[in-house]
Amino acid sequence: MHMNSRRYFLHQGRIASMLLSLIALVSCDIAELNFHGAEMEVPVNVTVLDLQDVPTRSSVGGQADILAFEGAMNNMTLFQFTPDGTLYHSYYFPSLQGRLSVQGRMGVRYHFMAVMNMGDVTGWLDENATEAALNSMTYEYGSLPDRLPGCPMSCLDAGVTMSDREPVLNLVFTRLMSRFDLKIDCSHLGHGSFAVTSLQLCQAPSSVQPLAPVSRAISAEDVADGDYAVRNDLAALNSGGTVPFYILENAQGTLLSGNTDPWAKVPSSVGAPAETCTYIELKGIYTDRTGRMQAEHTYRMYLGENSTTNFDVIRGTYHDMTLILSDDGFLRATWKAERHILSDSRTLSFWPDQYSVRYGDTQVVSLSGSDGCSFSLSDNLLSAGVSFDPAAMSLSQTKKLSSDVTGTLTAVSWDRVLTATCAVTALRYRPEFTLWCIYDYQWDYDEDQTGEVTENTLTEWLRFEAVTSDGQRLPCRFRIPGIPACAQYAETVEIVTTGVNRGPGPADMPERELLPESLRGYTLYVIVDGEESCPSWDTVTIRR
User: Fold this and answer.
1) Is the pTM of this model over 0.85?
2) pLDDT 10s digits, 35-50
3) What domains, with CATH codes, occur in the chain?
């Protein structure tokens, strides 16, 4: 939201748009004309308040032209009424240069109403017409190129009593237009850039009732396309500058009483009166950061004193507006925000399209075309303790699972046009372990009837145990290709060897070919907790 303070503001209001915000600060600029009555000629004093610098605009021109347009007092029509409201005299001054005067009878107080920059409209009232008749008089302002120089103005209430004390008639004029200075703020766009291509006032009044207290369009025939931006204006908007445009008064009032949602300020909510309410239509081209997607966006917003309920465009007011564009606004699909894809050659895909992650580990994921994507995991993976970090593009797992869980990781482009999905498996918990190789043997003695040892039998065992860091023993099976007794997975392998009859005891133990060290010559396959693996000897402890 952007706010500028102006020293001549009278009040402030808020003008709204989609996934976007506006602030309108309102002021009235007035000019005074002093006339000396009693059939005396007196000079005209004109005062125009200073205006701040503004860039070029469409139909009026540059800064000097704007000041001239808003402050010009080229001609004036003045209506003079007696105390009973009857027309006494009409004056037309084709120029306000030199000395001007009005006439009247001494001692009588006259009431005056006047219009500025509208040419000679004295024919609005016939002789002896009443003052009330002016309320219904309509001034057709015409299209922009045909407009007379100078902003149309009116004075609704002025009076003076004719006396010999040199009375002064003070005419205070109000411009019949409202001025809106528009600025576009694209700093909140995170995925690309936006270039304004057109700006148009729509359903702007083509006529005004200058001497009525308020003026508004009654039917669709009373409105038409109004002020618009030309090339210089578009350049100013796209460079962060401000462009002013003008609208005749269109006091439509509060039409959505109680509404609190700016996105509900649309024709479908307003009903039939929507065809006479003035709105801004802005179009532009959005280009994503890769340059591979372009879309045309159209924004529309009703003018008014706030963003939700009011549709008034009031004469003599000034509004400083900033339209803030956001990525969320681009995703809307309403009357206020429309999107049309012009070209899109983007792609979005995971490679590979399958990943697995273990407890306590992370797994990096590869995604092409991932600029600005949002990501989501299937519910079963979330319940299994899986999470995804978009900044690191990595999966992690925080729960000890008793079985594998397979789900999906989905990527969606920022504008929800492209999607990509990959399979993710959260593996069941298998803790780190130390693998023990246990080697043991036992002598069996065969004796004859005399008690002498006739044969020594050596029975040997190889056994593996997997022990976790917390002391838990995991089931373990193994095989050693090349050793017949270890050719199949088994918990324990028994190898029986018959020794030479040399007498009892270990002294008769023959030289052994199967020792723990000899296992280094083989590939050891171990299944721990149901999973096949090939641990290196660095992780296997040999123990007798």
Assistant:
1) no
2) 333 343 322 333 333 4
3) 27-177 (2.60.40), 178-344 (2.60.40), 349-426 (2.60.40.10), 433-543 (no CATH)
